[in-house]
Amino acid sequence: MTTELAAGLMLALGSAAALNWGYFVQHGVASGLPPLTPRRPLASLRLLFGNLRWLTGFLVGIGGWALYVAALALAPLSLVQAASAGGIGLLALLASRTAALAPRERRGIAVSVAGLALLGVSLAGRTTSAGQGDWVAVAIWVGVSLALAA
């Protein structure tokens, strides 16, 4: 793995952490505020931007998007997106600390994180150059995926 690729993946992980933490904080603050309404957009914006904790979550989320763009400059989209998607695990951890999750929700989180881990394992040792796929292999993969999803 090149230094540039490793830096891109680290930026993607930082992006995932920033985006998901920012979303978590914003959602938590907004749920405790008086009802926001599109009929009074300026009042709603004042409520949100007037809350320092919500504003911090917003700015951290914006920083997460900047990290994502920087990661894309250093690593291929397929790797950056896979690393960024791992943020669902962090979001689940944060959510489980503030609310009791049902067993079904915990299983869903476990399946999501396991799928992302398998995706990461499948990318190990691969080159980052694009090639033309074999349509038969792609059709089999899609068919098996649809069968498992069903």
Architecture overview:
By secondary structure, the chain is mainly α. 79% of the residues lie in helices and 0% in strands. The chain contains seven helices and no strands. The chain has helices at residues 3-32, 41-49, 52-74, 77-85, 87-98, 103-123, 135-149. The relative contact order is 0.13. The mean pLDDT is 85.
SSE series: HHHHHHH
Number of helices: 7
- Which percent band covers the strand fraction? under 5%
Report on the biggest sheet. Answer: none
End-to-end separation in angstroms reads 37 Å
Number of strands: 0
The computed structural class is: mainly alpha
- The helix fraction, in percent, is over 70%
Mean pLDDT: 85
CA-based shape: globular
Q: Which spans of ≥5 residues are poorly predicted at pLDDT below 50?
A: none
